Amino acid sequence: MPESHQSLLQQSLSSNNKFDHTDPYSIFSVLVYDILVLYNTSVWSIRNHICHWEANRLPKADYPFLHEMARHMVHISETLTVALHSLQGLEEQQEEFAGQHLQYRKSNSNSKHNFHFQRQLLHSLLSRSESNKARLQNEITLAFNSEAQRESKVQVRIAEEARKKTASMKAIAVVTMTFLPSTFVATFFSMSFFHFDSPDAIRDRNSSISYAFWVYWAVSIPLSLLTFLIWRL
Fold first, then answer.
1. Taking Cα atoms as reference points, which of 84, 75, 103, 106 lies closest to residue 35?
2. Dmax over Cα atoms in the chain, in whole Å?
3. Which of 51, 67, 122, 208 has its CA 20 to 30 A from that of 11?
4. Per-chain mean pLDDT for the chain
5. In this predicted structure, what is the pLDDT of residue 189?
6. How many whole angstroms separate alpha carbon 75 and alpha carbon 69?
7. Which helix (H) or strand (E) is 195 found in, with range?
8. pTM for the model
9. Does residue 136 surpass a pLDDT of 80?
10. Region 201-218: what's the mean pLDDT?
11. CA 28, 29, 33 angle in degrees (round to 5)?
């Protein structure tokens, strides 16, 4: 408990006009009231944080901060639930005590009314805490969905860029395949293994092929196989 509330509780207990000495349960009503002040501060403090977050949503969500608020909300709701059950048990004990001491039944009206009011206040704070929890969960869901939408837009842009690059590569491939056969034929027949302008070829209207033409295949085929092997690796 914070020191400020500790001092407030000590002042309440030391004050003679805050509880009836003839009622053994009146001191509990004073204690519960001071604790309710602390609960009320905690619940509305979280509520103010949530309102501030709702009014000033960041482009990129601060998930650790949201997680911390959610953790505190769970703790507050748990504490309020336990306090409510404890107060209900205290009221039951007071009724049982009053049944055993008939003279006490006439003098316990103040503490009984205080317990009833405090129980209603605890119910209200618990409802507010559950509402805060629902609002916070809504903000977490919204932040997650917004982040997912932004990621989806980024993925769409990447896919569009990839589609444009694919179209460009396809155009380059079409141009390459168009000129590749003619380039290969021109390069192949321009090698020194073929003699189209020799005197014998001109006279006989024929062409001659060098006897060393096999060297071309002996070198090109292994190199091609080696290239494919390296590409697969």
1. 84
2. 146
3. 122
4. 80
5. 74
6. 10
7. strand 194-195
8. 0.60
9. yes
10. 67
11. 115
Please report where in the chains the tokens 């209207």 appear, as a residue. Answer: 205
- Cα(111)–Cα(117) distance, integer angstroms: 10
* CA pair distance 78, 84, nearest whole angstrom: 10
Helices (H), the chain: 3-14, 26-55, 63-100, 102-105, 109-189, 199-203, 214-232
What is the C-alpha separation between 57 and 95, in angstroms, rounded? 50
The single residue listed with the structure tokens 């932004």 is 150
Amino acid in the structure at residue 58: L
- Cα separation, 19 vs 5, in Å, equals 18
- CA 154 to chain CA mean position, Å: 17
Q: For 35-77, what is the HEC assignment?
A: HHHHHHHHHHHHHHHHHHHHHCCCCCCCHHHHHHHHHHHHHHH
Percent of the chain beyond pLDDT 90?
A: 14
Reading the block at residue 207, the tokens are: 């062409």
Two structure tokens written together for 42 = 């905690």
> What are the φ and ψ backbone dihedral angles of 129, each rounded to 5 degrees?
-65, -40
Residue carrying the six token digits 């998930």: 63
| DSSP letter for each residue of 2-17 | -HHHHHHHHHHHH-TT
Partners of residue 194 on adjacent β-strands = 209
pLDDT at residue 131, rounded to an integer: 93
Q: Phi and psi of 208, rounded to 5°?
A: -120, 145
Residue 208, strand partner residues? 195
Nearest Cα to 40, choosing from 64, 5, 13, 71? 5
The gap between the terminal CA atoms of the chain, to the nearest Å, is: 68
